[in-house]
Amino acid sequence: MLDVIKLLPDSVANQIAAGEVIQRPASAVKELLENAMDAGATQIDLVVKDAGKAMIMVVDNGCGMSETDARLCFERHATSKISKAEDLFSIRTMGFRGEALASIAAIAQVELKTRRKEDEVGVKIINEGSVVKEQTLVPMSPGTSFIVKNLFFNVPARRNFLKSAVAEMRHVVEEFTRVALMNPEIGFSLISDGKELYHLYPGNLKQRIMGLFGNSYDEKLLPVNQETDRVSIHGYIVKAEFAKKTRGEQYFFVNRRYIKHPYLHHAIENAFMEMIPKDSFPGYFLNIVVDPADIDVNIHPTKTEVNFIDVKLVYAILHAAVRKAIGQHNLSPLIDFDQPTDLNIDFGEVVKSSNPLIQPSIPIDPTYNPFRQKGEFSHSSFGGMRPSAKNGDPGDWRLLYGERTDLTEESSESSEPIAPTPKKSQYLQLNQSYIVSTVKSGILIIDQHLAHYRILFEKFLKEMDNSTGQSQQELFPQPFTMNVNDASMLHEMLPELQSVGFAIEQVNATTFVINGTPADLNGSDPVALVEKMLDNFKINRSDLQLERKLGIAKTMASQLSVKSATSLSEMEMENIVDQLFGCTVAEIAPDGKKIYTIINIDELTQKLNN
After folding, report:
1. What are the boundaries of each domain within the chain?
2. Where are any strands of DSSP class E within 50-121?
3. Backbone φ/ψ region at 102: left (φ over 0), alpha (ψ -120 to 50), beta
4. What is the DSSP letter of 432?
5. Which one of 3.30.460.90, 1.10.645.10, 3.30.1370.100, 3.40.718.10 gives the CATH number of domain 377-401+424-610?
6. Which of 465, 480, 433 minimizes the C-alpha distance to 553?
7. How many Å apart are CA 267 and CA 323, to the nearest integer?
8. β-pairing, 250-254 with 284-289?
9. Global pTM?
10. Phi, psi of 579 (to 5 degrees)
11. What is the C-alpha R_g of the chain?
């Protein structure tokens, strides 16, 4: 019988390794950026085309390589970081296994240019599918340039599984963010299809966070600093009031290497317990410094998972450090007494004054509305006028309440004046959260928040279908910034937002300006509302336009609807009830909760008799 086991060719072995290390363009970006940092670069530029599927170029001003090293770096397991097994437990660099460049060269066309400072010229190597096609000397400045073209050109099946350019670009930006975040002393830039998305100057960690996620983070961050003999923790956490509905800005690093660690994430969540809603997540940017001998970073192909010798100790120190940062923030004074003041008030003279200080007051009638005519009810807060019955059919509303008329035939024919009588209240508000009224079969109890939620939800859906949303021009346009990934998602949502009344203009890759808002906003913060809609979009992301419309309508209706524990007038309660029973679905709120219930006469009788 013939032998069946044989050694794989190097080209096949490299393609198999590439399947573990290089899963998409973002994987190649990560490996090339980490190699540039290991080379001691102070400026790293990343250029991509078609989200990296067509081209990835990384240029650095690091130490460069000799001609021999440049040729050898494409060989499998060729590395300058380790020479014996014990070195695996003293690693302080990013790349060390020597698989990255070999894996990239196995499934792409790679052009390498590199030069050391002591060399007069550099070397250029072209490698296609693990085969060196060209090696020449070229003039260039010190440093290294990697150009990766046509990723997976020789593995078409892998290329077919790549997502859209927008989705792949999000992964590229995420890998760029992870590398740039904990290396603020290095300058970074990112250019996509000729557009500069990021230009990050060297600085400190807080400046780098603001450069990546927007200037609004200047007021959102709390510093975390904890030094112990075994573990040191440095970085920032996001204040509890800025917690998001998605796991957005959550970054753990160990010795500046990005990691994922659910157990340590639980330490952060536990530290924020009872400070943020249960459906929200805290944000953090934390670097854990430990002795490399106390961790194992070689347990995952992409090195995003690590093992700690004493993970419980790290958990306890991390939890205590975050609690300390939160406590210091809560106890900090609201007034900075060290700041100079221009006020020169002699409070002693004020006290000695014989004239008493009287607070001015203006008498007002809170029930007076100059714009409300007789018989008219308020509608600005509840999404429009009372809907009329469809095609003359009274529908559920009349069936629920029974037929009733305000004037009899005789009184309408009579010419004698009728003395006005006070209108009997038809609605009662219970606990400032429920609207109670009598109906033909018993007592109707309506949850005012869920009812208004349903009313606005159907209103916004109709406006998006017909593009009839009314926009109110902003006197002072409101600019706001966000990271590139969030900006790309918001760009997808702009048509739906414009159809409900938002006028949002995209100034550049990360900056937007709100020029107009829906007429129903009623003083709500438009930027905060847009951010909430974006969070919901990230949770329930879909390429279907209908799903985007439903998500936007739900978020806007939930945020703008009247809340529980809100006092309502008789007309406002009547307006809610009339509009609710004019909805397509009056029984169930958009989140699936029951809007109203009816306690019939039999139930009342049974309860009273018991």
Report:
1. 10-202, 210-331, 377-401+424-610
2. 55-60, 109-115
3. alpha
4. T
5. 3.30.1370.100
6. 465
7. 10
8. parallel
9. 0.70
10. -70, -35
11. 33
pLDDT, tens digit, for every residue of 255-274? Answer: 998 988 889 999 999 999 87
Q: What is the DSSP string of 153-217?
A: TT-HHHHHT---HHHHHHHHHHHHHHHHHT-TTSEEEEEETTEEEEEEPS--HHHHHHHHH-GGG
Rounded Cα distance between 250 and 301, Å, is 21
The pair of structure tokens assigned to 595 is 């809007």
* 509 phi and psi angles, rounded to 5 deg: -65, -25
Look up residue 147 and give its two tokens.
Answer: 């150009």
Label each residue of 253-322 as H, E or C: EECCEEECCHHHHHHHHHHCCCCCCCCCECCEEEEEECCHHHEECCCCCCCCCCEECCHHHHHHHHHHHH
CATH class of 210-331: alpha beta
Give burial (CB, 10 Å; 0-12/13-18/19+) of 416: exposed
Contact between residue 57 and residue 47 where contact means Cβ atoms under 8 Å apart: yes
Q: Are 110 and 104 in contact (CB under 8 A)?
A: yes
8 Å CB contact between 4 and 96 = no
Q: pLDDT averaged over the chain?
A: 81
Read off the tokens for 521: 């906003």
Q: Contact, 252 vs 286, CB < 8 A?
A: yes
Digit-coded pLDDT (tens) for 559-606: 999 999 899 998 999 999 999 999 999 999 999 999 999 998 888 888
Cβ-contact 67, 114 below 8 angstroms:
no
> Which ranges in 86-164 belong to alpha helices (H)?
100-106, 156-160
d(CA 450, CA 557): 10
Tokens 């963010």, located at residue: 177
Token digits for 588?
Answer: 């169930």
DSSP type of residue 521: G
